[in-house]
Amino acid sequence: MSFRALWIISHDKGEHASIRFSRRFSTVEHRAKRLAGSSYVAVPEEGTVLQLLLTELGLSDSDKSYVAQRDDCLRCHRSPALELQVDGPGKGALWPVLTISQGPLILACLCLVDAPPEPRPPLANLLSISQGITFLEGLQTFLLGSGSKPDNEGLVSRLAMLPSVILQVCPLGTPLDVPALGAPITPTVPTPAGNQKQPAWKTGVHRGRAVVNVALIETVRSMQYGNQSRQDLWDVYGTVTCKCEVEGVLPNVTVTLTLPPNGSPLQDILVHPCVTSLDSSILTASSIDNCDGSAFSGPYKFPFSPPLEPFRLCSYTSQVPVPPILGSYHLTEEDNQLRVSLTLKLHETVKNSFEYCEAHLPYFNRDQMGIVDVKVSSGQMDVSKEKNLLVWTLGQKFPKSREVTMEGRITFCGPSPGPSDPLCTDLTAYIKLYFKVPDMTLSGCCVDQHSVQVYSSTKPRIVTSRELHSEEYFIWNSTGKAPVLLF
After folding, report:
1. Single pTM value for the model
2. What is the pLDDT of residues 263-294, one digit of tens each?
3. Domain encompassing residue 223
4. How far apart are CA 437 and CA 451, in angstroms?
5. DSSP string, 54-123
6. 135 lies in the same domain as 162
């Protein structure tokens, strides 16, 4: 990662703004010119750069709420990388320009992208974005110290030192490392100690009590038609998220996922870039291939060096034989009255302990509900006539039979039309289930607390959890013409 140019600007809400320090790197500019070819856009004079930056940041023309070159709807803003439109000779766009501001200062840099200008690579693929922001934060710490507004003499003194500092930490426009200069802005991001080198992508280290949190969440989706001519669909998607508060510059953590003896192998596994090594067989199982029983079935070990912030360690899919709740929904119409019959059955493998479980029955494109005469075998029914909606609250447990039913009639004779929706017309009606089951996954996948290994100077507290919840879980009227919906 290299910089084409670097600027430090002082301002007072856009007024009396001036460039206090600037540095251009001719060797990097030469590389930029070779990469861009005929699309090369030169860095303009300082006055032009200052005006373009203030306009893009909304710090100039305060009397104008709309500025065409910044607010035009045809422009695609891709924060945090700004695009400065240059007019005149060499007309074009400077990108990506990174900025951070605090107190009276704006720090900005123009990064070199080692790729042709068109098409632009996704920001997520550019390591220079995160490294550039981290570099600017290091300079900000050096200039402002622990406060947001140092005295003017202190700022002048540090700006005078900046040429020699840049020469040391960023020779020829390429940072050697994040400049750990001066005191940190907050005590939670101290300068690392010891012989281990601080990586450029990590802005600090954790100090304090060591805690590792690992959460496994599985989401199940289902389309149930109750019709032999149409196959029911369901799938399971799992994610493992971590928050590791562990001391050390590069601590090592290993999280292991395990399956029950008869569990289906995990498929479509994607991992976070911080994972340091992985068995190649873990990544080969795909849901588009037929599972022949020879796929890797665990245990799944993920060694990694965690970032400071919470992150998604991995995601996966799983093929399970049946959905957790099976439904049968029958709806028939007589005059302006609907006869409703619904049965929900909790599968025997699913833990009968919910945080919540609700069934929503909408009836759109009709008059408002009038008489609602329905009976449920368990739970409570709430009627919203204005929304033409029945909400069946099943509570935290199914009965011992694991089956609940609803029977009744609904008359639509309200004074005004109810809500409309193109999806739910006539007998094309559905039930949507919302539920959450703590301490369970449908695939049986789990993270054993004792299998989480942390190689650190202090022994951390390990916290693990898992849960199953629904998303897009539909049961369609078996006597109607349900639309074909794909996940």
Report:
1. 0.60
2. 888 999 999 888 888 877 787 777 766 555 55
3. 211-320+448-462
4. 23
5. HHHTT-S-TT-S--HHHH-TT---BTTBEEEEEPSTT-EEEEEEEEEEETTEEEEEEE--SS-SSSPPPG
6. yes
